[in-house]
Amino acid sequence: MGRRKKIVQECEKLMDNPENIRNIAIAAHVDHGKTTLSDNLLAGAGMISDDTAGQQLAMDTKEDEQERGITIDAANVSMTHEWEDTNHLINLIDTPGHVDFGGDVTRAMRAVDGALVVVDAVEGAMPQTETVVRQALREGVKPALFINKVDRLINELQEGPEEMQQRLLDVIRDVNELIRGMTEEKDYDWTVSVEDGTVAFGSALYKWGVSMPSMQETGISFGEVIEMEQNDQRQELHEATPLSDVVLDMVAEHFPNPLDAQPRRIPTIWRGDSESELAESMRLVDDDGEVVFMSTDISMDPHAGEIATGRLFSGTIEKGQELYVSGTAGKNRVQSVGIFMGGEREEVERVPAGNIAAVTGLRDAIAGSTVSSVEMTPFESIEHISEPVITKSVEATKMDDLPKLIEILQQVAKEDPTIRIEINEDTGEHLISGQGELHLEVITQRIRDNQGIPVHTGEPIVVYREQPQQQSREVEGVSPNRHNKFYITAEPLSQDIVDEIKLGNVSMDMPELERREALQEAGMDKDTSQNVEHMFKTNILIDDTKGIQHLNETMELVIEGLEEALDNGPLAAEPVQGALLRLHDARLHEDTIHRGPAQVIPAVRDAVHRSLIDAKIKLLEPIQNVRIDVPSEYMGSASGEIQGRRGRVDDMYQEGDLMVIEGIAPVEEMIGFSSDVRSATEGRASWNTENAGFRVMSDNLQIDKITEIRERKGMKLELPPSVDYI
To answer: What are residue 116's DSSP bridge partners?
Structure first.
């Protein structure tokens, strides 16, 4: 029997003991060594050869990942590990570190209970480290820390024991500050510490690792590690204290099993009835209960079709079951169920609660769907911290490929919810919006290489937003037949409320009382919070009317008109964000025929646009935080690259032998930044950008940018006459 088959059988045996299951993700800043660490763990579990671990990058299963040397898609693997004479099943997800693929990290956190945060000992906690820790804690996932590349401190930086200890303690302190900040109000302490054994150190490249428990067991102290590293005895060091044992022991001992985790996590991610049988079944990880599965990832298999991978919170999934998919009609039939072994999916008979399963046949599921054997309240949607900021047009070179291209783009949107696709049947132009240049480059390259469709891509276009700046007067919108009138005002929403909506802490799916309290906590006054009629993206409609006849049955059309107006703002048809709209009054014709869609929608759309213009609506541009690490002699040229892009340098400080420059710059100006900063610093700089939301574009640029966007979209170039304030 092959080694792989043996491991699959071993995993199948362990699936029924939730107390011995650990569902974990490895997360970190880009290039801190996650995938190299995953190789070590696979080798430790006997799944790949020990000799090639670290170079094989087994979890980077796609060709373009191997070529670019970065992880693009989260990859799953199930393995076994013996700790304290008991075999444990470890379901691991290796996640990407690059900011453009952050959506994969957020989705992976929904499926796991523990996050192994990897930090480079030389670079320390970086912006993306902070993001992944925040994503884990928001999902109720417990962190542990592995400090990688300790060999570089010994050999490259030649640090002595005291210096090295100080540097490692600084990393632990920084990570703990992040954890404390996110868990202050919780009744548990998840900070990591060397004494508890929740911190390990080592070198994923040279396959050795140490932690407090491992030092006690092997007798190998930090002093000996330094000595063996300096004497080039890395192979002996790996054999004496293998990294995979140190890390997997830490996982087995300190990460919660599903029985510990689910009672705590379910209230965070599910707003259904906590007294119901279903809630009880999820809390108990009951494999005899109803099936409750959350799909966190959709991938394509050329033979099996679509595979939905995700966490099974209750019940047992088997071939042939008919399951509901939230938000769609009818049922889907399970074709097969399996577990992942890196790039390969191995079919098994059944997967019980508490495990991560790969299921085929769920054709209606997308990443984020709730799949269940009974109709139920779906799980909270997975909120992605950043939104698409860059768009490219994609066209098929040959007209014959058009139907196939549309199909592939729809599939892309299903697999990656952080990508937005707009398909324009009339012009044959399709727009893809993503998190950054690399994100879109990878998607278009995959369409070309994997699907064999030659495509043209346009220049990157930046996504803008529009937002009111002050309170408007009451504006009247009249229907084409003059029989219906709507009176609306617009004003800006506070940033605190916008943030709460983005994080998913306020939504129309919540019970009304909960929503009211959340809005009041974020600063909305009591009366306003009681009249929330509708929320659309980060905008809110308040119904301040009193007893108007026929308004109830017309409200659906009012909302449709409102959404149309907010999707295409009055300045440049860009989406409106952070607007609070109040409907003060309405005059409606009593005959239904005279207040149909053709009358109400244009009247509301007109009123919303005019009220936004009166509220001095302005164009917002997306911005990015920028961090550049560079030798001090190149500091001037590197900071010049930020300042020359309408950017602002906020801080400069020394870290080790490098200068760190931190600042912000508009996304539009950052296109092509990588090649410019490389040549300005002769290739000596490393940098990182992170989306930082939107800010009002400066007044002297507003009119030119609005005209440019209107021209690109084929709109009339002159703005409405009332926009005279820009």
So the answer is: 26, 144
